[in-house]
Amino acid sequence: MYPTRIITFFKTAVLTLKRSLQRWTSTKKGKLFFFLTIAFCLFVFVTAFLKFTKYKCLTESCENGFAKIQYRGGAYYEGYVRNSHPDGYGLFKNEEGHFYKGEWKHGVKHGDGSYRYPDGSSYSGTFVNNKKQGLGVFGWRDGTTLSVRWNEDEPDGAGLLILSDGTKLSGIYKSGRIYDGNGAFIYPDGNVYIGSWRAGKREGFGILRNESGQIIHKGNWKNDKEAFNAN
User: Fold this and answer.
1) Separation of CA 206 from chain center
2) Looking at CB atoms within 10 Å, which of 86, 191, 199, 210 has the fewest?
3) pLDDT tens digits, residue range 156-205?
4) Rounded alpha-carbon distances, angstroms, from residue 24 to 12, 14, 132
5) How far apart are CA 157 and CA 135, in angstroms?
6) Measured in whole angstroms, how far is the alpha carbon of residue 46 from the centre of its chain?
7) 2-24 and 28-53 are packed helices; what angle lies between their axes, rounded to 10 degrees?
């Protein structure tokens, strides 16, 4: 008896739902309402799914305090959290080779820390809202280092560039590149200029090499151009 009643109930429910859908989709407004309702339901479902599956907690709790978290895509965080977001001291790494160890605030790098990039370069200094800000040292894979004040992720101020051979170049950086004094600049085509600058242009003695290290020009520069001595 009970199975028959259950089957009858479901048949009635399906039939009622079918009739309701037919009424809703019989007009343009009804069709629009129906599709908007479906879209909203899908949005809620996807949002909830992403929220509850974006990471896997590897400790007893990942709400507040110390936690170990495995994110989708293989990223990993170990350190202090607040409301399930990195907050305090912790380390982060992912499968692409990015590695950060230092201070966090509300889920972003904020405070003192060290960052290692996949290409072997690194930065050690201060971060503000995920960007290099304040005093910091950037190092390249060949051992070259730049000690300078940073602003919005770019070198900005007096800096000291120490090349891999020990050569020291002091200069003023502005908006991410050498502006005055002595420094180096890598061009989009791979050429590298090392020498004197004035107002953002090559001025004085300098060496321009291509990507392979061959010297293109060694000598004086004026107004960002090669200055050949007259015979």
Assistant:
1) 34
2) 199
3) 999 999 999 999 999 999 988 999 999 998 898 989 999 999 999 999 99
4) 18, 15, 56
5) 10
6) 25
7) 120
